Amino acid sequence: MKYINSKQKRNILSMAVILNKRKIFNDPVYGFVPIEYDVIFNLIEHPYFQRLRRIKQLGLTNLVYPGALHTRFHHAMGAMHLMREAIEEIRSKGHVITEDEAKAVTIAILLHDIGHGPFSHALEHSIVNNVTHEDISELFMSKLNDEFNGELSLAIQIFKNKYPKKFLHQLVSSQLDMDRLDYLKRDSFFTGVSEGVVSSDRIIKMLNVVNDHLAVEAKGIYSIEKFIIARRLMYWQVYLHKTVLSAENLLVNILKRAKELAVKKVDLFCTPALKTFLYNQYSAKDFKSKPELLNIFADLDDNDIMASIKVWAKNSDKVLSMLCSNLVNRKLFKVEMQSAPFKASKINKIKTEIKKRFNLTDKEVNYFVFAGTVANDAYRSDKIGIDILFRDGSTVDITKASDQLNIDVLAKTVKKYYLCFPKSIVS
User: Fold this and answer.
1) Which of 112, 238, 299, 335 could form a disulfide with 273, with the two C-beta atoms 3.0–4.6 Å apart?
2) Does one domain contain both 221 and 92?
3) Measuring CA to CA, how many Å separate 274 from each of 123, 137, 186, 299?
4) What is the pLDDT of residues 143-201, one digit of tens each?
5) Is residue 255 within 8 Å of 308, Cβ to Cβ?
6) pTM of the shown model
7) Can you give the residue range of the structural domain that contains 373?
């Protein structure tokens, strides 16, 4: 038997680690996606990131589009792949992105959604007090930075837009970032809504940098026009689909009712992580002063919520059980949408009928009859816009450069009003 000295053993182990980390992810949208950096592999393997496998990208949208079961994990990996392509394209045009910057901006896009709670935004409105997923993302990144001995410091600077090269932050968060390019294409793929298909390859090939800002070469203007139109269509057909709104509002009302009962010390079935947030009032300030909350939050995913809702469907509280039973069995509220606010007389008439039918109090009926607004802003001209780069070096905002009259129209926010109530009621 040949003797292996300690140096040879270290080399063999080192090679094994490298081989172990040069993984390839088989993505249904893009095909094979390589993992370029060891730190990226380690971050993906971390429990904080693995949790994203258990959080659906589109919440309850699968109740409308049955294929919409993809996760935040899928999306983060896809956005990471697009970032890698964007870096290569910008470098090929003579702009300097150092290896450290490339690694950092890749980490930033990989972790950009790590703070999302179960069913995306539902927790922000009910279980915790105005703690956004962006707040949680920053806390997770800070904690990971400590665990990784400061290796995420540059990524955090880029994520917070505190790094001198501003175009790197734009690749992570802007009106034309890798986040939007991936979720439009991915959500279109899994819902089957073809209107959301965008040419991410074409757009990335047309990317350039002018005066530290991202720009799109004029040859790509039609791809940008389609990108903006696709966003508008996907919002109305998927993200703000009236049945999706019905399901999401039902979920929010379930959690609000559960929270109301928890405040009254009613004993509800909960997973340990959900119980912590349901029976306590925590704000963003608490997350900073009580570091243990972050780890408890990291234990929350879609499974905690749905397991509890299934049990609550048989709870003795009439309101909670009715709401949960409706969601479990897809008995969703009817939704009416219009461009003007609903008349108070109409809302009160429906509330009166619901109160009588289900023997509800004035307060309880608000869980079953409620109104709200949604806004669709495919392109915000009041923010840092999408610049079109012409051959003479000049740049012009897409709304002025486009020869499509509807692009300027799409830059205007469209607001709609909705009213939800049980389908058994004739409005």
Assistant:
1) 299
2) yes
3) 10, 19, 30, 9
4) 999 999 999 999 999 999 999 999 999 999 999 999 999 999 999 999 999 988 999 99
5) no
6) 0.91
7) 335-377+412-427
